[in-house]
Amino acid sequence: MRYHIDTIPIWDAAKKDGECLLCALERRTELGEAERYLGASVMEPDVRIRVNEKGFCRKHHGMLFGMSNRLGHALMLDSHMIENRERLEKSWQALNRAGEQLKNAGLSDKLNGKSKAAKETVRQEAEKIQAMAGTCVMCDTIAENMLRYLHTFFHLYRSDGEFRKRFLAGKGLCMPHTGQLLAVAAEELSGKELGEFVQALAAMEKENLDRIQEDISWFIKKFDYRFEKEDWKNSRDAVERTVNKTRGWCVGREPNE
Predict the structure, then answer these.
(1) Is 252:237 a contact under the CB 8 Å cutoff?
(2) Shared-domain flag, residues 180 and 132
(3) Which residues of the chain have pLDDT under 70?
(4) Do 191 and 65 share a structural domain?
(5) Residue 142: which of 183, 177, 182 has the closest Cα?
(6) Alpha helices in 16-112 (DSSP H)
(7) How many folded domains does the chain comprise?
(8) Of 145, 137, 166, 173, residue with least CA distance to 22
């Protein structure tokens, strides 16, 4: 049943004929998660516990802020701040003690054992605060979903000839998702099957990177007066597509229009 449920979005992404079906799938997942966190689930205890513990990264706070649900956003921020302040209280106490020791040590006592311990405390507390600010419940959920989709991709690739044909005839993947797919391929496939997949993927990626390179090069030439009257060909959005091909979708037209 899980395979059936998970294959539908993968097929939907493949049918879009975009530069990376996994980028389309990831973006769909990301938007769905943003709506979920600002919807009724904001009041679900298990969701609030995860949000309180991890919060959101800068990117996903930006997404949530832009979705015009200030109250839902504020409810999550309020409880997350309360938990953060409780966790930080121990850090402030440890830092105050370390600061007092360092002040009392003076400039002439750089090698004092207490001074060394105090400096180590500052370093440790800095790491704790950085770690607290570096978590994101949405990033974790998206990563979990995408890993499941990557494994489901190979169920489709092995069992559905039509999907395999469409994928290999497509525009390839972005570089990050190519790496992720190869890593999962080594788990899902073996022997001849893995060898054939790796060769097919490498050939498809090379062909499509050549295409992108040609487009971005022609885009640049169009700013040379010698080519200004030439047709733009397929290069008008070459900058966006090149960025998205090398780093994953982040600029330009949405992959799920």
Answers:
(1) yes
(2) no
(3) 1-4, 106-112
(4) no
(5) 177
(6) 21-38, 45-54, 58-65, 70-105
(7) 2
(8) 173
